[in-house]
Amino acid sequence: MITLLTGNGRLLLTLNGDGEWSQLFFPHPGHFQHLREARLGLWDVQAQEFSWLRREAGWKMSQGYPAAGGACLTRADKDGVDVEIADHTHPNHDMVIRRVVVKAPQPRDMRLFAYHSLTINESMYQDTAYFNEATHSIVHYKRQQYFEFFALPRFADQGCGEHTLKGLQGSWVDAEDGALEGRRISHGAADSIVQWNITAKPEGSDPVRLFMAVGKDAAATGRLRQFVTTGNPVRFEREAARYWSNWIGRRGLRVPEDLGEAARELYVRSVFVMRNCTSSNSGSIIASPDTRSLSWGGDTYNYCWWRDAGYISKAMDEAGLTELSNKFLRFAQKCQSDDGSFAHRFFPDGSFGSTWHPPPFLQVDQTATVISAAWHHFKHRGDLDLLLDLWPMLKNAANFLTEFRDPQTNLPGKSWDLWEERHGIHTYSVAAVLHALERAARIAEELGKDPVRWRQAEDEMRAAAMKHLWDEQHGHFVRSLGPRDDKADASLLLALKLGLVPWQDVKAHQTVERIERKLWNKQVGGVARYENDQYYGHENPWIICTLWLAEAKLNMGDPGRARELIQWCVAQASPTQLLPEQVDGRTGEAASVTPLTWSHSTFVDVVNKYRDFVEQPRSVSIRRD
User: Fold this and answer.
1) Of the residues 486, 521, 545, which one is the last residue of a structural domain?
2) C-alpha to C-alpha distance for 595 and 51, rounded to whole angstroms
3) CA distance readout (Å), 326 to 285, 350, 454, 529
4) Residues 204, 125: Cα–Cα separation, whole Å
5) How far apart are CA 569 and CA 43, in angstroms?
6) pTM over 0.90, yes/no
7) pLDDT at position 68, please?
8) Separation of alpha carbons 271 and 250, rounded Å
9) Are residues 374 and 521 in the same domain?
10) The pLDDT value given to residue 620
11) Distance (Å, rounded) from C-alpha 435 to C-alpha 431?
C-alpha cells in the first residue's frame, strides 16, 4: 500500500509502509512504472548480524511529512538502533535524493546496503545494469530510459546481478553475509546492490546520500551526476526541501479552525496529491498512482478519466493551482475525438487507454465535464485568450452534446454511467450535460459568439428531464432509463450540485433525504455509491459520496451536519494523510486504491465551500461550480 509519495510532475515516487520505494513513474505520473523492488539493509559488524529494514524483520516503522514540505520521512527502530530516512524529489531536475542516518546507543561499525531492481518501461527483461568505475556510479538502462545511481560518500562496494530467471532471487541475497561479490555488469533481468561502511553513533552517523538521476540516455544522467558531484551535493536536498515548502506556502491555503488540525494537514496533503498526480509534461491527471488493482482487477488507475480530471481541475483552481488546470485543458485539446466527444480514458502520454466499453467508448458526462472545467478555470483565471484558444474544442464538444440525443425522450442518448457499469440514460449524466450546455453558452457570450443553439438544447433537455426522470408518485428521481432503475444512487447528489433542480426545490430535499436514509452505512458511517453495490464489498462507503452529502447539507443550511461528514472523511485518512477511494463497510479499513486523487480534490472543494459558508453565512445556497 502507498503510504508516502513525492514528485515533480515528471517523476513520481511512491513508498510503502516499510519506507521502501514501491513505484517509480517517469516521464509522466502514472506512465511508465519502472520499479520492481528497492530495499535497505544493515549489517552489524560486531554482532555479525544482518537485517532488512522491514516490519517482518522486527523493525518498528513510523512515517510522515515535514511541516508544509514535500519530503517523505521514514523512521525505523529496532534493538536501540534508529534509522532515519528522508526521500526528496528535486523540483527541476529529474532526480530522487535519499538521505539515511543511523543512530545507536554506543558507537558501532555497520554496513548499509541499498538494493534496486527495475522494470524499465514496465518490463523486467532486456535491462542492463553496470558499474562505471570512472564515475563511481551504477547505471540501469533500456532503450531511451536511463537510471544512474551515485552517492555521497561514494559506495564502499557494489555489485550487479540478476533476479527471477535461472532460479535466481536477486543480488540482495549477496548482502546477507555482509560482503558483496557481485559482477560489474549484468543483463536480462538485471539488478544491483551498493554498500556503505558507516559508524552508527548516538548523535547519528554521517549522512549517506543516494542520488538517482533519470534521463533519456547516459549523457543526460551523466550531466546531472556531474552537476551534482562537482558542486555541493548537499545543496540539492536543501533546494528540494525549500522549494516544496515555499510552493505550498504560496498557495494561501485556509482551513476553518473548527475543522481542526487534522483537517488542515489533510487539506495540505490533498493539494500535494493533486500536484503529484498531474503531469507537467502533458497535463494529464491520473486517477491514482496505486497499482495494486492489477492483482485485483487486471488493470490500474494510472489513467486520465475526463470526469475525475475535470473535477480535480476545478479543485486545483480553487487551491491556486491554475497553471496545472491550464495544462489539463491543453491535454484535453489533444485527445478529443473527431465528433467532439471524449472517449473513456487515456494514458498520460495522450494515447487511448484500455477500456471495457464497446465503441464508441462513451460516458457522455465526461465530455460535459471538460466544458464545465474550462468555464470554471476561466472564472478563476479570467484569461479570455485561453478561452479563445480552447474554443474549437469547446464548440465541438457542445455541438456533440446538442446532437447526441435519444429520439424518444429528447434526453442525452444512451452511454455508460459514471460508475462505468450500466448502459442507459442516467440522471447524473443528464445533469452533467445540462450544466455543460449552460456553461458553453456562457463561454460563447464571453467570446462574442452566438449561444442560442446551446441554450435552446438545454431548455429542451431540462424539460425532458423533469418529464421523464422525476417520479412524482414516489417522490424521487430515477437513477436511469433504458432500462428504468429506481435504486438510490449518490450520484444524484452530484446532479443536484450541477443544478438539476434548485436546492430550495422540494425535489432536492427529498433526494438528499432518501440518499442519506438508504445509503448511510450504520456500522462504520459514510455514504455508499448505490443500493447493493458489490465493488470491493457490499455497499462500501466512498469518500467522494460522503463529501457530496456534506455539500448538500451546506446548501440546505446545515453546516453542523456538513462538518460531521467532513470530519468522518478526515478520520478515514491514513496516518500519512492519504485518502482511499472507499472503506470496507464492515471493518472501516481502506479498500481499493489509496490515494484516489478525486477523493483528495473533493475534500479540497468541499472544505473550501464550508469555509465560504461559515465565513459568510447566508440563507441561499452556496456558489455553484
Assistant:
1) 486
2) 30
3) 12, 16, 24, 30
4) 39
5) 42
6) yes
7) 65
8) 12
9) no
10) 47
11) 6
